[in-house]
């Protein structure tokens, strides 16, 4: 590099116009003679009045001069070698010594990294982009890298430079990524990227690959190290890796952390599995706050364990700016929300779940993102993550933007993000939100507001390929996990692998069953006789996909009422209707998901701003419903016939589905062991039936292993005194039958006791 740089070059640095400030700033070799080298060191220090170069190895200090600009300093040093020099900077009456970031020229991103990223196949790109604590030349600091290919310039802002974008200008490598190593920064550093487009507009952005963010309404990213937590769930992960979840009981407790329960500084959370005197939103102290992940582990895990659920599903916990979005408008895809604690706190919570035998599913939102200025929208001054054409790139009904799945780097961002949550946080599954909105180009759009695909159709081919890629990737790395689609249309083979032409999920929410059930149970029981098809229709297609039966948060908001408000009758009948619905759900083929508050019969809709109505557990009927759930989950988990063959046609068999006059259905659930089966009889009216005959395939004593009308649950306690012997009476095409008492609005489960003889 020539000793004399031009004023134009200096102006490029001063005005933040240079794509590679390393060409001007830092240390450069000017000449080399035998035994001696001449170096020039240049620094742009916008707030400095004086500057010196400190060469520790030479034990010398060199004053820097400003020839071209008052804040542009340089000096020449003659020596054999000059390594790890420092700058002493005087700003007014203050003085500080720093390592010059522009002497560290090594890049941690290789050409191969960038090749894979541009191809869309760098599965762990989060280990390269973002902010990472590393060492260069023996000096510890933070390496920053951000994808902003269309930006004119990018700088790093933070407390360390008074949020001044002139001080830490990044360099562009391979015309794709901007990078800079800033020495002596560490974990906990707050930062953003200052991005300038070619028109000179400036955008302050959080890090798309940032591992942590400030608590809203602040939006800075925070440097974090995700590899320091010591996990204790190796046995859980090993068992998961060797287990097919489709053959296992899966009962999911879906919840929103921020509205499950609040606490206060003076009152730590209690074990709500046993405690009924609970602080609610209405009687909480003024300083009521969210539970932390640590506190959640202390209170939620015992509660869920007592209820018998196998999994917890968390509404989106990636960082989001607005509580009222429930987490579905994400700005920090790689940052768990700081509302509830640090990344390590979340790791502790998941670790504790695993140690207590509970899996963790996270809602994942790859379908859209908000327009907030610090987020992904118009990231580098162009439509980088989203489509530029609003007919493809905007959900006007939601006020959000749509990812450009056809862009390799965007697809890579999302695929790596799904993998990231399994890799770094040991989650056990993702529930993918709003899949239908991704699959159809005309989703929630009028004619003329959408663009057809290359074949003239409405299918989003790029989104289809993305979903296949993300599912193929996560299952390849983490066998035994769950990938659940919230897909509300008749798109074929959602839960089939890509090699069969499917989307690659291993489960799909059964939205048809949900709508049928809610419509049916909302009717006065007298009218149910005319709508038997609502109960039976799902059996025609239950094995066409790997279905998850879900009664989710979406069904108890926006004026839809909570579950107990949906069903008719007086209070006794309402609780009986709920027990009947939930019992039928757990006897029906498919895995199960239920939203918080349903387990104890909350009367009001879910409100994201309030706690659940925990005070209801002071009332017997609500406590009994909670106990009913615990027993229902225990029966479900202990009987392979209720879960082993959920997705096989042979796992279900009607006994009688045609008794619409009484609104009664009966069927058999079968396990892989042909001798293991359960008879289920459902009476969906308040009218009990004595001497109701049901055909069964084998003779013997059938124990009544479950009765939703039990007095323990608040029922009328009608039943069959523990079970019934068969009669040699051909009925329902079976050689034997049972003479049963069917309780009102009741569901019975009976199992052949092979150890009991007539003698």
Which class of secondary structure composition applies to the elements?
alpha+beta
- Evaluate the radius of gyration: 32 Å
Please count the helical segments.
15
Give the uncertain stretches in residue-range form. 265-284
Keywords:
about 750 residues; alpha+beta; eight-stranded parallel β-barrel; about 25% strand; Ig-like_fold
Please describe what this structure looks like.
With 759 residues, the chain is an alpha+beta fold. It has 15 helices and 38 strands. The strands form ten sheets. Strands 17-20-23-26-27-28-29-30 form an eight-stranded parallel barrel. A six-stranded antiparallel sheet has the order 31-32-33-38-35-36. It has a four-stranded antiparallel sheet with strand order 1-2-6-5. Strand 7 and strand 8 form a beta hairpin. The protein starts with 6 loop residues before the first helix and ends in a 6-residue tail after the last strand. About 3% of the residues have low confidence.
């Amino acid at each position: 590099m020539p000793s004399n740089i031009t004023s134009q070059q200096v102006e490029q640095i001063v005005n933040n116009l240079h794509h590679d400030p390393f060409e001007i700033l830092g240390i450069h070799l000017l000449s080399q003679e035998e035994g001696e080298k001449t170096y020039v060191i240049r620094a742009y220090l916008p707030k400095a009045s004086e500057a010196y170069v400190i060469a520790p190895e030479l034990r010398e200090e060199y004053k820097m001069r400003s020839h071209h600009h008052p804040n542009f300093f340089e000096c020449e040093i003659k020596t054999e070698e000059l390594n790890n020099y420092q700058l002493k900077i005087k700003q007014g009456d203050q003085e500080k010594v720093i390592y010059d970031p522009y002497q560290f020229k090594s890049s941690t991103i290789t050409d191969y990294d960038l090749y894979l990223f541009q191809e869309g196949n760098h599965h762990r790109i989060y280990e390269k982009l973002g902010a990472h604590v590393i060492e260069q030349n023996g000096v510890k600091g933070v390496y920053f890298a951000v994808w902003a290919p269309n930006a004119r310039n990018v700088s790093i802002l933070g407390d360390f430079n008074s949020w001044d974008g002139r001080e830490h200008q990044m360099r562009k490598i391979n015309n794709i990524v901007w990078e800079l190593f800033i020495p002596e920064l560490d974990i906990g550093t707050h930062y953003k990227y200052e991005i300038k487009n070619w028109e000179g507009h400036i955008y302050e952005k959080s890090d798309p690959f940032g591992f942590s963010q400030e608590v809203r309404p602040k939006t800075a990213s925070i440097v974090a190290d995700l590899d320091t937590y010591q996990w204790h769930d190796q046995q859980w992960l090993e068992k998961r890796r060797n287990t097919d979840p489709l053959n296992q009981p899966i009962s999911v407790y879906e919840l929103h952390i921020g509205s499950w329960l609040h606490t206060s500084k003076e009152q730590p959370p209690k074990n709500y599995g046993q405690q009924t005197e609970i602080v609610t939103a209405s009687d909480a102290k003024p300083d009521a706050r969210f539970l932390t992940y640590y506190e959640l582990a202390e209170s939620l895990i015992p509660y869920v364990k007592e209820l018998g659920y196998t999994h917890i599903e968390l509404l989106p916990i990636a960082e989001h700016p607005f509580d009222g979005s429930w987490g579905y408008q994400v700005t920090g895809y790689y940052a768990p929300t700081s509302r509830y604690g640090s990344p390590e706190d979340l790791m502790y919570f998941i670790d504790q779940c695993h140690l207590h035998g509970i899996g963790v599913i996270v809602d994942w939102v790859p379908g859209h993102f908000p327009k907030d200025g610090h987020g992904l929208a118009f990231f580098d001054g162009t439509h980088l993550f989203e489509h530029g054409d609003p007919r493809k790139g905007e959900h006007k009904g939601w006020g959000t933007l749509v990812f450009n799945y056809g862009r390799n780097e965007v697809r890579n961002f999302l695929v790596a993000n799904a993998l990231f949550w399994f890799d770094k946080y040991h989650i056990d599954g993702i529930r993918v939100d709003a899949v239908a909105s991704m699959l159809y180009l005309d989703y929630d759009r009028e004619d003329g507001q959408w663009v057809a695909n290359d074949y003239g159709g409405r299918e989003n081919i790029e989104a289809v390929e993305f979903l296949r890629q993300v599912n193929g990737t996560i299952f390849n790395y983490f066998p035994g996990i769950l990938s659940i689609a919230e897909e509300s249309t008749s798109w074929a083979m959602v839960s089939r692998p890509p090699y069969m032409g499917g989307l690659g999920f291993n489960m799909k929410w059964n939205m048809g069953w949900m709508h049928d059930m809610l419509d049916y149970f909302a009717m006065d029981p007298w009218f149910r006789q005319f709508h038997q098809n609502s109960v039976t229709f799902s059996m025609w297609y239950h094995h066409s996909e790997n279905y998850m039966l879900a009664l989710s948060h979406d069904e108890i908001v926006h004026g839809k009422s909570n579950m107990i408000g949906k069903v008719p009758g007086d209070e006794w009948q309402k609780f009986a209707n709920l027990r009947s619905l939930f019992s039928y759900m757990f006897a029906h083929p498919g895995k199960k998901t239920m939203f918080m508050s349903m387990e104890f019969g909350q009367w009001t809709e879910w409100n994201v701003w309030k706690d659940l109505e925990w005070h209801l557990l002071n009332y017997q009927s609500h406590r009994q419903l909670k106990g009913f759930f615990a027993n229902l989950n225990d029966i479900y988990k202990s009987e392979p016939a209720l879960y082993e063959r959920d997705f096989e046609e042979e796992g279900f068999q009607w006994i009688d589905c045609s008794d619409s006059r009484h609104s009664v259905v009966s069927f058999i659930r079968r396990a892989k062991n042909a001798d293991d089966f359960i008879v289920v009889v459902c009476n969906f009216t308040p009218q009990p039936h004595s001497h109701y005959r049901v055909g069964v395939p084998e003779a013997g004593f059938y124990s009544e292993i479950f009765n939703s009308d039990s007095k323990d649950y608040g029922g009328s306690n009608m039943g069959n005194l523990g079970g019934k012997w068969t009669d040699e009476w051909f009925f329902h095409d079976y050689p034997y039958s049972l003479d049963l008492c069917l309780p009102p609005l009741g569901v019975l489960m009976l199992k052949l006791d092979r150890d009991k003889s007539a003698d």
